[in-house]
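An instance follows:
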Amino acid sequence: MWKKYILWFAQEHVEFRISEFESLAKMFGLQFRRVSKQLLKPFWLVEFPNEKTALQYASRSIALRAIFELYSHSNTLPEFHNRLRSHVDTHHKELARHFSNDVSFKITVETYNKHFSQREKVEKIETMDYLPIGGTVDLKSPQVEWWYIEFWGLDPKAVPPVPDDILFGRLLAQGQRHLIKDLSLKKRKFIGNTSMDAQLSLLMANQAMVRDGDLVFDPFVGTGSLLVSAAKFGGYVLGADIDYMMVHAQCRPSRISQRVREKDESIRANLKQYGCADRYMDVLVADFSNPLWHPRLSFDSIITDRSSIRNTRGHGEGGDQKECKRGHTQ
């Protein structure tokens, strides 16, 4: 009973999209069949064996905006509508509960690289008046939400005359992008000049396949951005850095409005701020070139910024090269 799903990705940190998807699939042991060939597009078509698998992926993905059960897609309107009619007719028993009279609904029109007026959006919805919808419209909290999507390419300076793809599906779940705002540096207790933004650190924690109960280490910890994300996903976190002033939060404040650091600023305070204080192991002042760990100590994951390896005074954050390793490294 494999089904096709629409994965709608944010067009940010696109270079992490494939690695995050494959890492989460490996971590959860998810089966999938990738249908889309152009993986730089914000909309992928992927086959999963069931809805549970699709929801499990969405429960951790940071790159994902939302996931939909695919009803129809095509690059021409006539074929799109033919496929949508056929899908509804073929699966009428399975879909009947979504079209029921006592189920409220909403249809959202989404376009990429092209703007539609409200009137144009309504016209698009009206072209699907053959859908056997029986419930009432609820724009605030519908029980079922369908999305009509038109993708008009990636280049805003060369918009094609017709859409590259037209898609329609039922919304299953949102991704975990709310964590980007929840862990924003703007409100974080302790940050430095090179503190890694929340989105990137969350993506790296997913690449490292951090699981609940893992022991995670960052050898160039800086202000602990990677530790925050790893702890948010259930890891017990440990860090080290050669910069004594940074580790002890005695360096110059990074915020323009702040002249002196507060006494309680620390990496531990960051973990406490996000309800992860019980996941904080410790942070040490140490030189990465001189190992200090007992040979029997094993880490489930090591997450760090490789650009710091070239800098003996590196803080472990903010560079372009990232390193995420998994597998009981000693």
User: Anything to note?
Assistant: The first strand starts at residue 3 and ends at 9. The first helix runs from residue 17 to 28.
